[in-house]
């Protein structure tokens, strides 16, 4: 399945071996029994320890450093699988058969064609917007495509949408040498695809597929618009990972670049009841639609304590500047009680398995990239400092965000797009978990302990 990337598979399998060796003595899984509601559990601030639902989608064992998607461990999925397979697995419960996989791959390419959404987005000052804010806006426009379909007065023929504003947007020739403008290509393709026939309602599994395909297409489009270029549509002959890089950069990636992106997408696809997944689920539990639920996930992911940490890690490594300065920088940061970006986790009290995979791959990718190599060396030194101190005292280890930014830097991707790439993968987990929760929906509604007063007398505004 993966060509010319044997060395990368070996690195992943070695990481798996090391993980098993280092954590086999840890206790067996907890949080894996059916629930008889109501349950009693110890809840800390930030809902730490709270059990909100049952799931068959994924499992994180914080003590052992396990991550499991639908029964498969993350190391095996990274070594042998692809993002298309993993997204299907999360959404449908089983790995696809060959014919299911082929249909799904084709659909992801088709659903990645969102010209109307991209055109709407281009009427906003995307180049001056935070990329995650633009992405959130884009997913709202993806929902809007249905509103247009639903109100048939506006349009009942895709070609009319495209040709109606064809003159108003400057065209860019496709980067593979063809002379025709991108949206001429769309016009023909979209007619063949009859995409909107499948997507009549903004709920259900088709919308999940639409979002999995559309978010990566949007991320790539935003990356291009921000540097003054027009979006590129997905290429029907490329894999999801390859298409993602191609749509961002205009260049078909090498097998190694394709594979590292694929692995990274697999690693970020799902991760229990993390903040962005929970945010999506909270919105969905009100029976709002899945596009708006995903928008909530994007908003939550943006923060530096969650998905935004990967961008912050690169800023931090650049601030440290050299291997020699790392110890001094770290000691000063500790003295100021500063959080070290890319370290620590609410659930993992062992080495995050995703960082176990990404660390050797970041080293591998940075061999031929000067900037990547410099950042990797500082990161390696910082990890040593943290493990020697915080690791021993507080069980703080690198998390997924610590090495992912170095990998993306080696792919030539600007740090502003690290978190959007995370979103392009995690949308598979968000949609899978929302779909599962809705089967047995109950609106989320925790309570707060009121510590205010009870008996204040009202004072009119002029007497305050
Ligand atoms: N650097 C230094 N100390 C840390 C770090 C860190 N990165 N993370 C936790 N600690 C310390 C805290 O200071 C605290 O110490 P104390 O008990 O002496 O006060 C203790 O470890 C527990 O930390 P909390 O902040 O209570 O842990 P919480 O579960 O609330 O937070 C979080 C987890 C947000 C991930 C935290 O570790 C952090 O801020 N890390 C840096 C940001 C980051 O990398 N986020 C990405 C996480 S992975 C993801 O979301 C995809």
Query: What is the C-alpha radius of gyration, as a whole number of Å?
Result: 23 Å
CATH superfamily of the largest domain: Citrate Synthase, domain 1
In the CATH hierarchy, the architecture of the largest domain is Orthogonal Bundle
Helix content: 55-70%
Instruction: Enter the CATH topology name of the largest domain.
Output: Citrate Synthase, domain 1
- Structural class of the secondary elements? mainly alpha
Instruction: Give the helix tally.
Output: 20
* Quantity of strands, as a count: 3
Keywords summarizing the entry:
globular; Cytochrome p450-Terp, domain 2; 464 residues; 3-stranded antiparallel β-sheet; 3 domains; Citrate Synthase, domain 1; single chain; mainly alpha; binds acetyl coenzyme *A
Describe what this molecule looks like in 3D.
The chain is an all-alpha fold and 464 residues long. It has 3 domains: 3-41 and 53-80, no CATH class; 86-305, Citrate Synthase, domain 1 (Orthogonal Bundle), CATH 1.10.580; 309-410, Cytochrome p450-Terp, domain 2 (Orthogonal Bundle), CATH 1.10.230.10. Helix content is 56%, strand content 2%. The protein contains 20 helices and 3 strands. A 3-stranded antiparallel beta sheet has the order 1-2-3. The model is unreliable at 152-175 and 177-185 (pLDDT under 50). Acetyl coenzyme *A (ACO) is lined by residues 46, 305-307, 309, 339-346, 390, 394, 396, 399-401.
């Amino acid at each position: 399945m993966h060509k010319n990337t044997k060395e990368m598979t070996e690195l992943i399998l070695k990481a798996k071996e090391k993980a098993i060796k280092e954590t086999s003595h840890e206790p067996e899984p907890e949080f894996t029994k059916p629930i008889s509601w109501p349950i009693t559990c110890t809840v800390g601030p930030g809902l730490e320890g709270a059990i909100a639902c049952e799931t068959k989608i994924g499992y994180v064992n914080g003590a052992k450093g396990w991550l499991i998607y639908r029964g498969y461990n993350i190391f095996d999925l990274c070594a042998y699988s692809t993002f298309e397979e993993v997204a299907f697995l999360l959404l449908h419960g089983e790995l696809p058969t060959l014919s299911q996989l082929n249909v799904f791959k084709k659909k992801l390419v088709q659903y990645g064609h969102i010209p109307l959404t991209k055109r709407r987005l281009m009427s906003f000052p995307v180049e001056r917007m935070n990329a995650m804010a633009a992405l959130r806006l884009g997913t709202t426009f993806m929902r809007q495509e249905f509103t247009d379909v639903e109100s048939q007065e506006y349009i009942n023929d895709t070609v009319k949408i495209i040709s109606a504003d064809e003159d108003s947007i400057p065209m860019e020739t496709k980067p593979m040498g063809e002379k025709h403008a991108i949206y001429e290509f769309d016009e023909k393709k979209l007619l063949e695809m009859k995409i909107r026939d499948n997507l009549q309602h903004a709920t259900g599994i088709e919308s999940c597929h639409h979002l999995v395909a559309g978010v990566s297409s949007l991320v790539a489009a935003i990356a291009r618009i921000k540097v003054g270029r027009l979006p590129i549509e997905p290429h029907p002959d490329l894999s999801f990972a390859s298409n993602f890089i191609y749509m961002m950069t205009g260049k078909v990636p090498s097998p190694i670049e394709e594979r590292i992106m694929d692995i990274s997408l697999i690693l970020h696809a799902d991760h229990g009841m993390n903040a962005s997944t929970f945010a999506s689920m909270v919105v969905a539990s009100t029976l709002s639609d899945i596009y708006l639920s995903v928008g909530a996930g994007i908003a939550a992911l943006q923060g530096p304590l969650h998905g935004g940490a990967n961008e912050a890690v690169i800023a931090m490594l650049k601030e440290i500047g050299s291997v020699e300065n790392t110890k001094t920088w770290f000691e000063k940061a500790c003295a100021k009680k500063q959080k070290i970006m890319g370290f620590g986790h609410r659930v993992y009290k062992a080495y995050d398995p995703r960082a176990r995979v990404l660390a050797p791959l970041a080293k591998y990718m940075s061999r031929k990239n000067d900037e990547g190599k410099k950042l990797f060396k500082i990161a390696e030194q910082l990890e040593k400092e943290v493990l020697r101190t915080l690791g021993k005292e507080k069980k703080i280890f690198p998390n997924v965000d610590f090495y992912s930014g170095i990998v993306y830097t080696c792919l030539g991707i600007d740090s502003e797009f690290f978190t959007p790439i995370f979103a392009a993968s995690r949308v598979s987990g968000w949609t899978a978990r929302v779909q599962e929760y809705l089967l047995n929906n109950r609106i989320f509604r925790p309570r707060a302990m009121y510590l205010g007063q009870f008996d204040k007398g009202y004072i009119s505004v002029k007497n305050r």
